[in-house]
């Protein structure tokens, strides 16, 4: 018998309808709206124009533009027609949602009961028409019924490819097509075969076992085997066995907090292993067992389905915020993860705690960064281990410092703080546009952005906590994140100016402070 080892620069990219899978494509409600109002429009525009003037222009890469040249127009047209054919039920669901969202405006505060008979068939029995206490009408969905009737693993697939540099097409604008460079396998995300393949990087998999599990066409064999080696891949991780705590920065908002008893990974989004100028920790630096993964919110740079499937076989528990149940804009991460094959998903609300050996995880309110939408799937976390606290603040926008003064009142001193300062974020329609069901004034909503804290807000947080270490992270500067974020700051960018000011102030006040980039490590005894 001969063993095969997955090469460490092999991507297993999860696909839904040939698009990179992220949280809004997993939930049938949000998926229906993105298919109708994003995917179809992007593909139709590309087929009609080829987008030739834009695909090579970097400023368009983070928008709804296909980063392919005109030679792919026929392939995109075939995908467009396939989507129109195979997603008729989801397109009808989106149309039903939009129709219901308009209908509830008509009674103007009177009872909504007469509207039920006029709802479109695709949404009948899946929602309740409701008012809030200010007499504003809305839709409340029965998520379990929506998933029961509309969720399918049929469109799920895994695309194997190799990465040799930090450039990948932006996920919200470009579908993944079958080419000579990849191999697209029709695998449900919950399949244990994915774990066997991912595990094989270190432990190997018998060649015949792999072939039997995948049941490939013989013509695909060579295409598959190029992603594997016959030699084992060395792991670089050495489990921390000191008396204190080791913290490692993996890029963006990803932190690994380790004691000799516990390994906690926050917002995993990790580089693959390939030669690169910028030093980084990769999957090869992860421990064999991760006791807790903590997810702060559902944005694709913090909840990466690709990364989570890559590490699923290592993860014992995954912690997520509880959602605003039944709300279109706020799908349940617990439900998504369960359909991805995660067995132990823990939902938390503000100030809930998870006990640890020699400490605990505390869920803290996460304010801002969601364009003032009523989204509850967001928490930041304080991890207390061996007498010290490490606060991962993600992209919180500290416009109400009283929230954190109250939150930390019972937690005591917080010594180490990580905070994002992407303080000039995108507009509401950049991410949530496909879900908006009623007309709105883009100019009027320009102030409602996906922004984190500026210097004044971040400084107020640090002052209220009394931290000794204050590090800026979650800035999206690492080049291997371009396919998720596509951020290219200039020295004059507001985010750089504000974070530089924050760091200078901290250093003048005697704090350890810097903006993180690439990789970093701390030992706290």
TrEMBL record:
Q: Which residues form a coiled coil?
A: none
Q: Which Pfam families match?
A: CmlA_N (PF18456), Lactamase_B_2 (PF12706)
Q: Which residue intervals define the domain Diiron non-heme beta-hydroxylase N-terminal in the entry?
A: 5-232
**Metallo-beta-lactamase domain segment(s):** 263-419
InterPro entries this protein is in? CmlA_N (IPR041141), Metallo-B-lactamas (IPR001279), RibonucZ/Hydroxyglut_hydro (IPR036866)
Do you know which PANTHER family this protein is assigned to?
N-ACYL-PHOSPHATIDYLETHANOLAMINE-HYDROLYZING PHOSPHOLIPASE D (PTHR15032)
Q: Could you tell me what this protein is called?
A: MBL fold metallo-hydrolase
């Amino acid at each position: 018998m001969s063993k095969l080892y997955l090469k460490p620069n092999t991507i297993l990219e999860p696909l839904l309808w040939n698009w990179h899978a992220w949280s809004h494509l997993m939930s049938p409600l949000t998926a229906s709206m993105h298919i109708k109002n994003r995917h179809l429009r992007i593909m139709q525009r590309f087929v009609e124009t080829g987008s030739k003037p834009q695909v090579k222009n970097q400023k368009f890469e983070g928008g709804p533009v296909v980063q392919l040249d005109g030679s792919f127009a026929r392939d995109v047209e075939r995908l467009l027609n396939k989507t129109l054919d195979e997603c008729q039920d989801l397109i009808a669901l989106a149309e039903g949602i939009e129709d219901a969202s308009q209908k509830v405006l008509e009674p103007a505060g009177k009872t909504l009961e007469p509207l039920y008979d006029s709802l479109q068939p695709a949404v009948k029995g899946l929602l309740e028409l409701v008012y809030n206490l200010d007499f504003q009408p809305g839709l409340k969905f029965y998520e379990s019924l929506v998933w029961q009737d509309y969720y399918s693993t049929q469109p799920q697939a895994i695309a194997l490819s190799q990465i040799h540099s930090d450039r990948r097409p932006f996920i919200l604008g470009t579908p993944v097509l079958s080419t000579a460079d990849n191999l697209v396998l029709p695998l449900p995300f919950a399949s244990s075969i994915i774990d066997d393949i991912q595990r094989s990087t270190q432990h190997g998999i018998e060649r015949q076992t792999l072939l039997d599990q995948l049941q490939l066409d013989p013509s695909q064999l060579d295409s598959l085997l190029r992603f594997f080696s016959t030699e084992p891949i060395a792991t670089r991780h050495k489990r921390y066995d000191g008396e204190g705590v080791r913290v490692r920065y993996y890029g963006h908002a990803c932190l690994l907090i380790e004691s000799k008893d516990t390994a906690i990974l926050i917002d995993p989004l990790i580089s693959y292993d390939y030669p690169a100028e910028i030093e980084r920790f990769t999957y090869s630096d992860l421990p064999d067992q991760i006791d807790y993964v903590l997810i702060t919110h559902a944005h694709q740079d913090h909840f990466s389905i690709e990364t989570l499937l890559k590490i699923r076989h290592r993860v014992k528990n995954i912690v997520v915020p509880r959602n605003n149940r039944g709300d279109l804009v706020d799908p349940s991460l617990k439900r998504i993860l369960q359909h991805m094959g995660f067995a132990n998903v823990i939902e938390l609300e503000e100030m809930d705690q998870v006990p640890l050996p020699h400490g605990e995880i505390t869920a803290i309110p996460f304010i801002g960064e969601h364009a003032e939408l009523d989204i509850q799937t967001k928490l930041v976390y304080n991890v207390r281990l061996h007498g010290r606290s490490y606060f991962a603040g993600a992209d919180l926008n500290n416009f109400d410092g009283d929230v954190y003064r109250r939150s930390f009142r019972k937690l005591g001193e917080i010594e180490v703080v990580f905070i994002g300062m992407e303080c000039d974020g995108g507009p509401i329609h950049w991410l949530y546009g496909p879900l908006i069901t009623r007309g709105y004034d883009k100019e009027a909503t320009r102030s409602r952005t996906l922004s984190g804290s500026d210097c004044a807000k971040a400084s107020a947080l640090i002052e209220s906590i009394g931290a000794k270490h204050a590090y800026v992270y979650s800035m999206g500067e690492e080049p291997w994140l371009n396919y998720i974020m596509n951020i290219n700051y200039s020295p004059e960018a507001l985010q750089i100016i504000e974070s530089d000011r924050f760091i200078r102030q901290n250093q003048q006040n005697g704090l350890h402070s810097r903006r993180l980039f690439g990789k970093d490590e701390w030992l706290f005894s």
